[in-house]
Each structure stands twice: as C-alpha cells, then as structure tokens.
Amino acid sequence: MRRRAPEFRRSSRKKLSDWIWWLLGFFIVAGLVLFIVHHRHESPFEPPIKDMNTKFEDASQESVNFTQELVSSTSFARQLIDQMTLAKAYVIIAKERSNAQLAWELSSQIRKCQRLLSQAAVRGKSVTLEEAHPVVSRLSELIYRSRDNHYDISTMIVTLKKHSQALEERAIAATVQSAEFGQLAAESLPKYLHCLNIKLTMDWFENPKLKKLADEQRNSPRLVDINLYHFCIFSDNVLATSVVINSTVSNSDHPQQLVFHVVTDAVNYYAMKAWFLRNNFQGCTVDIQNIDDFSWLNASYSPMVKRLLNEEPQLQYLSGVTAGDNEDTKFRSPKFVSLLNHLRFYIPEVYPYLEKVVFLDDDVVVQKDLTPLFSLDLHGNVMGAVETCLEAYHRFYKYLNFSNPLISSKFDPQACGWAFGVNVFDLAAWKKANVTGRYHYWLEHNSDQLLWKKGTLPPGLLAFYGLMEPLDRRWHVLGLGYDMEVDDRLIDSAAVAHFNGNMKPWQKLAISRYKHLWQQYINLSHTHLQDCIVN
Fold first, then answer.
1. What is its EC number (predicted)?
2. Over the stretch 276-316, which tens digit does the pLDDT of each residue have?
C-alpha cells in the first residue's frame, strides 16, 4: 500500500508526544522548586533562629560570678583589691608623716579602683586588662614611692598595730560608756513617776482619812495568818509595784486570800501608802513598810550596812573597782548596793511569823495564778527557782571568780545558775540552814571585790548553794528587758514574765513588742496619772 505524503499524514502521534514532554517538564520544575524550598530551611550556611529562652540562657552564661572573681588569684579584680588594701595602709602612714600630696594621690587611685570594681560588678563582667592596667600601674608607682620614703613593712606593722590598739581602746570605752548610760537610764525614774510620787505624797499629808485608814489596817491579823498566801515585794517604784500586785490578783482564783508585803524607802513610803489606800485591788491585803524602821538592820548585824556607812568602801563597792582602778565603771549603779535590793536575804527577819512566802521582783508581770507555788514540795530545800543554765552564760563560772581558791575549792564552775524574780521560800528551812549567816560570810570575804563584781545574784548563788529546788520553766520567763526575740509561745505559757535588763517597761527605751503586757495593768484613767503623763 502506498504511503501518504507527509502533509496528508495524521497529527495524533505528534500531539501525544508534545503532551508527554510538557508533563515531564512540569514535574521537573515542581520537583526543583520543592528541593530548593526544603533545602532553604535546612541550609547549614544560615544560623539557626534562637528562641527567647535560649537567648536568656546565653545571657546568664555570659554573666560573671563577681565573688569568685575577687577570690581568684588570676583575676584583675583580685589584683586591684590587693593593691587597694596596701595603698590604704600607706595612706595612713603618709598622713602621719605629713605627706599630704602622697596621701592624696593614693586616695585618688583608691577611688578609681573602687569605681572600676563597682562598674564591673554592675555590668556582670570581668575587669579587663585594658581597664586594670593603668590603675594597677599607677598604684604600683605610688606604693614604690611610699617604700622609697622609708615606709617599709616594719613601719607599717608598728603603725597599724598602734591604730588597732587605739581602735580597740575606743571600742572598749564606748562599750563601757554605753553600759553605764544604759544602767543609769534603767535606774532613773521617768519624769511622770516623779510627778506621781509627789502628788501621792501630798495626798497623804493633806488627807487625814488616809492616815486613819492606815492606822486601822496596821495590825491586821491577816498579815500573820499562815493560812493565806503571802507575797513580798521590795521596791521604790510605786507604779511598778502596783502592776505586780494588780496582775497577780487579776489572775488569781482567790484574790481575797492574797497578802502583799511591800517594803520601800523613806522617800517613797508615803506615796506607796497613799496609792494602795486609794485603790482597791479586788479585796487583797497590801501592807507597806519603811526599811528605815527595821532597827535590827544595823552595822553590827549586817556587813552590807557596815559597808555603806563607810563612804570610801561604799564608792568602791558601788563602782565594782578597787582604789586607783578605773575599769568596770558599768558597775557603779546604786541598785547593786541598795538595802532594798539586798533585803531579800533577810526575809525571815522581816517576816518572823510566816512559814512560806513568794518573792516577786518589781519588774515582773504575773499572767497566771501563783497560789500553786505554795503547795510545791521543795524536798527539804530552802527556795524554789527556775534554772537558767540552758545557755553557757548562766553557769557559776560566769558569775564567780574561780581563780580564787576560796571559790574553786567549794563550788562547781559548771553548776547551773538560777534567777531571782519569782522565788518561793520555806522560812523554817531557811532558819535551819542559816542562809542569812552564809550570805554574811560571803559578803565579808568579798570586801575586796575579788570573788564577784556586782549584784545580788552571785552572793545568792553562794548562800543558797545546795538549797535550791528547780522549778518548771513555765513559772518564769526572763529576758523581756533586753532580748527582742523571746518566743511568743514561751511568753504566753509562762506564769510570770520578767523584764530583767535595762529596758524596763515604764521607760521610753522599753521594747515595744512586750510593753503591752505591762501597760494593761495600769489604770490610765486615774487622775494623777493623767495629769503626770500629759504634763
């Protein structure tokens, strides 16, 4: 069969071939586009995009621990610190040698060094060589000049030692002065208490009814009734004594069965009588006595009275120092030698008809009923007290001079101390053990102040040694007059809160955290108190 001419042939095969090539080209282009797009996301030549967390992590890794920089022996910061410390020493010596120019140049470089270290600490980066080099170089030159001026190491040591001794002496003097001022503040009465005493004394002399009422109560049989609960307080502070009595009767189950024996001095005697005659404390009995009326308390009986009659020994005992000695001036408080404060060692003589009494300091606040103290078994001992030896400070060796053989041969230096403030006394056992005689014995042996320095607690530890019955700690919490961190739970659980220390609650320097414990037992509506506090 004859083939057709090309122009007359069918074009179907040619069209099919064109479509195949078009499709193949399309797929090739599409694949190339996908390949490019895919590899653009995984390209090793572009840095990966960091999220915010990674950025912060890197920033924290770049910051420098500046404390480690300062202690590192290879850091520029450490070199700056060393150079600066040495330069400060040379500044002192240069000033002593009247070389003001050198001292000024050293001080200038020291300030530059401090500024450089501060800037490095703020930006959180190490001190660089470029930053440290000019300062270190200049300081080195100045230190070399100082040495060249014969400010050698031996001179530095001697000079710095003198400065150290001078600073130590100043610190000791400041400490002693602070203690002395604090003690003076603690022993002095605020203006409003002086005002109250004056007004009450005037009431006594201007109001005949008070004198008549006092005469009627003078020989009350309740004062010697051993079936009642007897408390003794020795104080020259009217308001403090009032708080002790008011807080005791307010927390007592049977306030009418309480008898308070108060001894004061001649200055405050009439004010005390007027106050307690004008105010009723829930039916309890309050008896006021004047210590000057105790004729038996004389120089022939008491070494303390004998000492006070001699002006020079009184000054020495008052100051806690011997003649020519200027140390320990903080012991010059009159309270340490006042007869009122030492009257606690004569309780059987003051109350010869009583069998058991509870002694209360005038800086305590009673929070619970104290009558169970009278039924405690003292196991033949003379007194009951709360021990204070949970801390090492309250051991015997802290109060007494154990280098003296008279002390070291009779007492254990690790024996546990105890506290005055809330104490129950068996007066029959007291007389049998002759505690007052033991107290006199130790007073006579301490005439030169070699056994102890101050206070009534050291002779108390000696006189009652082996005669003290430990009480539950919840009867007596101490420290409210100096410790600002007494546990609230301990205070709440205590029967008595004691403001021992210089920060008494009736003073402005009292610790405000505890002051409400004391103030709640003051009748601020009383006319005299209002007048005195306002004025």
1. 2.4.1.43
2. 999 989 999 999 999 999 999 998 999 988 887 774 444 45
